[in-house]
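User: For my dataset I need records formatted as: sequence, then structure tokens, nothing else. Please produce one.
Assistant:
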Amino acid sequence: MRFIFAAIISLLCSVTYANQWHSIDASTWLVSPSKSARYIQENQAIIVGKHCAAIINAHGDFVALENMINTAKQKLQIPVCYLVSTSADTQQVIGMAMLQRAFPSAKWYVGQAVFDNFSLYQQALEDKLALHRKSLTLSTKRLSQVDDKQQIQKHIDIAKQRLDDWQNLGLSTPQILPKQTQTALELGAQSVILSAVEAFSSADIFVFNPANGALIGGNSVDPLPEVRHEHISHWLEHLNTLKTDSKVSWLLPAHGKPYKKQALELPITFFEALNKGLSTKEVKQRLSSKYGEYDAQTKRRLIHYYQLAQRRIATKAQDTDDVVL
């Protein structure tokens, strides 16, 4: 029974986790998941110029990406000329296969480490599709064990159609943004600046929009940092640099709402606590006031992330789900 629902959830999850579109100004759209999916799917952004647009980020929910693509094609009156991955996270990278298929003429920018390990991402995409096929096959075999066969069969048929459509998905060779370099993408009457950094992963890209002072930083500027490696000094250095950058007004993280630059104090305090080796009890006392506006679930997640970061730093663990420093 659980295999049937695994297939339905993985292939039809957009029924529950619908995209939410927010118009920030005349040239900026933010695409975010529902509140219940805010730690599952990453935020995306679309920056629109006079001649073309840039789409920032993808994620591993292909159905939600399909819906986002369909909406983007309805809203945009200009071509999409650029795609940008803000980290080396596996799901974020392989999700770009959906965007590349939808916008085949767009140039896709990634950090150096993504390009250097490109074959691993290709394999991860194949593995993801193979897992979906296996789940669907098991669900079909167990159909006889459920009562509402007709309704479940309908979901399975839709899932099969999607899988058939995705079989030819692949990642085309991206453009490389070498370490510690910048480049400007011209959109027509405005541009965005890409900066290669090493913070959340070894292939992060900050996307800065001079027109509105927005810094799209992905996981690297999440208020609740998910630490996957022990090299947090680079990460903290970048956050402190952003805090003193007079050109930056607000930031878009991978997870959660956009926030004003002053709120960088949250992840900075998190990393400073790690550097000082504060205990979980001390962190609860110190960070509870900093994260005062967050709900109880988010505060529990904060402590969980802190404990996870402590373990990874202590053991110098490497997370195989990412290309890390």
